Amino acid sequence: MPWHDRKPDPWYSIRVRTGPQGTVYRVSFTRHGKTVAKLFRVREFDSAKAALKAARAWRDRMTQTLAPETKREFSQRMRPDNTSGCPGVYLKRQIVRRGDWSGEYAFWQAQTPQGVKPFRSRSFSVERYGFDAAYELAVKARAQFVEEVEGFVGVTPIPERFRPSV
Predict the structure, then answer these.
(1) Distance from C-alpha of 41 to C-alpha of 165, rounded to nearest angstrom
(2) Quick check: 39 and 22 in contact, CB under 8 A?
(3) Residue 65: how many other CB atoms lie within 10 Å
(4) Short-list 36, 123, 33, CA closest to 69
(5) Are 13 and 30 in contact, with CB atoms under 8 Å apart?
C-alpha cells in the first residue's frame, strides 16, 4: 500500500479502439447488473483530445447519477433458481443411517454471502422449531450475516471520486 493517496485513474472505464473506421473511445461500466456504455468517435469530434474530453465528461456525469451497487445489495439479489424466497437461505434434507435404522433430518440453513471470510452457516431444525419458525430464524441469521458485508461490487476498485456521497 503506498504511503500517499492514489491519484484518480483518468482512464477508469475508458478503452481506446483503433480500426478501419478510425479511433474510438468506448466508455463502459456496470451498475446493478446492467452495462452502461457509449462510443465517442474521433471523426465526430474533430480531434482525439476533444473526443477523450467528451468521453471523460460523460463518464463522470453517469457515474455520479448511477450509484454503484453495494456488496450488501448484491448479496440480497434474488437469483432465478432461488426456491426459498430469501437469498442465502436453503432447505436442506439429510439422511441419517445408524445400523438398520435410517431417518431424514430437515433443516433451514442460512449462509454468509459470497466473499465473506471465513464462511459460516447457521442451521435450524424443522423438527425442533417447526417449518415456519425455523425458516424465520434462518432469514434473521442471514440478515445478521449480510450486516457484516461492506464495500462495492466490481472487479476494479471504484475510485473515491466516483462513489456516491453519503
Answers:
(1) 32
(2) no
(3) 10
(4) 33
(5) no
Kindly write down the DSSP assignment for every residue of the chain, as one continuous string: --SSPPPP-TTTTEEEEEETTEEEEEEEEEETTEEEEEEEEHHHHSSHHHHHHHHHHHHHHHHHHSPPPBHHHHHTPPPTT--SSSTTEEEEEEEEEETTEEEEEEEEEEEPPTT-SS--EEEEEHHHH-HHHHHHHHHHHHHHHHHT--SB--SSPPPGGGSPP-
CA dist 85 and 160 (Å) reads 35
The set of cell numbers assigned to 63 is 457515474
Non-local (6+) Cβ contacts of 106 within 8 A are 91, 92, 93, 94, 125, 126, 127
Q: For 1-53, what is each residue's pLDDT tens digit?
A: 444 455 567 888 899 988 888 899 999 988 887 889 999 999 999 899 999 99
Contact partners, residue 116, CB within 8 Å, separation at least 6: 145, 148, 149
pLDDT digits (tens, 9 = 90+) for 91-138: 999 998 999 988 899 999 999 998 788 899 999 999 999 999 999 999
Contacts of 60 (CB under 8 A, 6+ apart): 162
